[in-house]
Protein: Strictosidine synthase conserved region domain-containing protein
Organism: Eruca vesicaria subsp. sativa
Amino acid sequence: MPVFFFSLRFLFFSAIIPFLASIVLYQLDTFDPAPFPPNALVYSTASIPPLINDQLLTGAEFIGVGLLNSPEDIAYHRDSGLIYTGCVDGWVKRVKVTESVNDSVVEDWVNTGGRPLGLAFGLHGEVIVADAYKGLLNISDDGKKTELLTDEAEGLKFKLTDAVVVRDNGVLYFTDASFKFNLHHFAFDLWEGKPYGRLMSFDPRTRTTRVLLRDRYFANGVSMSPDQTHLVFCETPLRRCSKYYINEERVEVFIQDLPGYPDNIRYDGDRHYWIAMPSGVTTWWKLSFRYPFIRKLQGIAAKYGFNTMILEDAGVLQVDLDGKPIALYHDPKHSHVTSGVKIGKYLYCGSLMDSHIVRLDLLKYPAQKRL
Ligand SMILES: *[C@@H]1O[C@H](CO)[C@@H](O)[C@H](O)[C@H]1NC(C)=O
Ligand SMILES: *[C@@H]1O[C@H](CO)[C@@H](O)[C@H](O)[C@H]1NC(C)=O
């Protein structure tokens, strides 16, 4: 028996052949990842806030268990007190939350037939949806009419419409994370390491779509400053959020070296933004972003059905209006947190994986100074 296992023939078939085959596969594969800009590979503790809760799930409550299928973004409608969220089955759902989460009511509101991600409220009660597959949608307040506003700019179709925000004057600002890869293949966008994302505006009066910024790395969440002068938007693989000054058409870094990969960013009406990070920075992510050949291997593995994208230690970072970190709520046991919205004393978290919204009482479970 042992003789067989260590025979040359065994070695040949079990190791050398697969090894040679994978070299050929690697060489033949056309997937061609690029190096990331060097500043994306800097890891510092500059963006770690003084206050931390590293057990986000401890004490957290689950809302709409089993009724919300990957509720990605969360938008709070103040007048009605309803939470809107977009699910992977195409439903925009409305949730009436109460003190006791078990009494919450989930309503199937409108199905876009696509994958609703970012949500925002228009000036006339309509709900604007950044639908990953469809583009930018306008759903009338009674839910009876869904209209496509835009799905291309400068001759390039959106592949992954991601987030949207509405300015006081009615102009919509939104992101397309990638014009090359759709949501189903978004991992390839991260692995390829090339900037296919755009920040854009849509003016409902002229019905024109304008590209404000191109060549962005997976342009993701976008939020409006309370004084309406600038946007803050996230670029996931760069672990960075930037400001875009609307009148000056100028870009400036808002926060970088984030402790994770940012997704949605939400303003809370109380001088803070909340940046959700579906994954923290792990050794594997670091290696993968540093070495394009690792990302190439990941891309090839994915084509053969092996998922090497591991998300862990998700969280939400609270920052002030200048991008100064205030508090981090995260959990090594949690992943795929895509949005964080503070409503009253609660933090509500959306997810790309859970079948519920996670709610944390910030007074009972605050972030605290580290010892
Ligand atoms: C809510 O429902 C869950 C699951 O059914 C149960 O374990 C929990 O005790 C309930 N909580 C309250 C406050 O009723
Ligand atoms: C959305 O559609 C409604 C009519 O259903 C219209 O009143 C509103 O102006 C539209 N909003 C945008 C941003 O186009």
